Amino acid sequence: MLAVLLAISLAPVARAEVRIKDIASFEGVRENHLIGYGLVVGLHGSGDKMTNSPFTREAVKGMLERLGVANLDGDLLKTKNTAAVMVTAKLPPFARRGAPIDVVVSSLGDATSLRGGTLLVTPLSGADGEVYAVAQGPVAVSGFMAQGNAASVVEGVPTIARIDNGAIVEREVNFELRQLDSFRISLRVPDFTTAARIEDVINMTLGGGSARALDPATVEVRVPGKGDVAETIAAIENLTVQPDTVARVVVDEKSGTIVIGANVRIGQVAISQGGLTVRVRERYNVSQPNPISIGGTAVVVPETNIDVEERDSKFTILEGDVSLQDLVDGLNAIGVGARQTISILEAIKASGALHADLEII
């Protein structure tokens, strides 16, 4: 029986306030995804098979032709030291030209390992098709693979590699923060109460009318006077608020994990958890013929024993509007495990006594 993981937050304990920067993001301050197609060379026979990966063969042929190797018959390429890869990266917000960024290299063909390889010059494009960075350099693989004629060992994923500072930014995103007269704060978990609290704390700091909650996920802030946008954001992001959350119970049936929020309340219910256990034992006996019998043969005789055990169940009564601690104490009183707790929560939800969202993942 797996252990139950309970997120316990007692009612008498006040909730801690958090910074706005930890529960929300600011307009324009975001990453951009980049992607490119490239080649990793220098592998020790662990690259793509040209017969199975025609795109690798064509890429090698095109690269060699650009480097001056003309009239090359691609069908004659039999190298095993090259692998076609997809290169991905995240362009940080406000990254300037010449800044280095990390890249991830993933095998596209049937290469078995990228260990020891070097990524050739690979342009990285954004969603608009423009090239924003160029990657190149030796790859670092965390996994490995060793094999022989009869067995093989694989540790980690040797077909995925990383290059720290492997790309250089060549184009900047056109976004001027200082030209904004106002900006928006986007909550990661939309909630009307939290948005209203952010609005109140900003107005107390910058003056009335500076902030306005547009919806449960967005708060608009006007830059006071001719103030600097960056300074205004710096003054706001460290303000603390007390976020509000919806009462929710999250259940992961695959692992038996249960997370119960502090706002969960349960109406008055009586809980009984019991079960019927059936044990079946099989064993086989051999019946031998008598020593002087004629034509007798040994016979296998199966023998089955069945035991039925019914465990007496105890009722635990939870009074109306109980807290999380009362619920935990009540479940522990009847000695239930993770699987039984999941069944109990689903039954309480079906009865209408669970005043919370039950989310099963």
From TrEMBL:
Its main location: other. GO terms for cellular component: bacterial-type flagellum basal body, distal rod, P ring; outer membrane-bounded periplasmic space. InterPro entries: Flag_FlgI (IPR001782). It holds the Pfam family FlgI. It is found in: Bacterial flagellum basal body. One of its GO terms (biological process) is bacterial-type flagellum-dependent cell motility. One of its GO terms (molecular function) is structural molecule activity. Keywords: Bacterial flagellum, Cell projection, Cilium, Flagellum, Periplasm, Signal. Assembles around the rod to form the L-ring and probably protects the motor/basal body from shearing forces during rotation. The basal body constitutes a major portion of the flagellar organelle and consists of four rings (L,P,S, and M) mounted on a central rod. Belongs to the FlgI family. This is Flagellar P-ring protein. The gene is flgI.
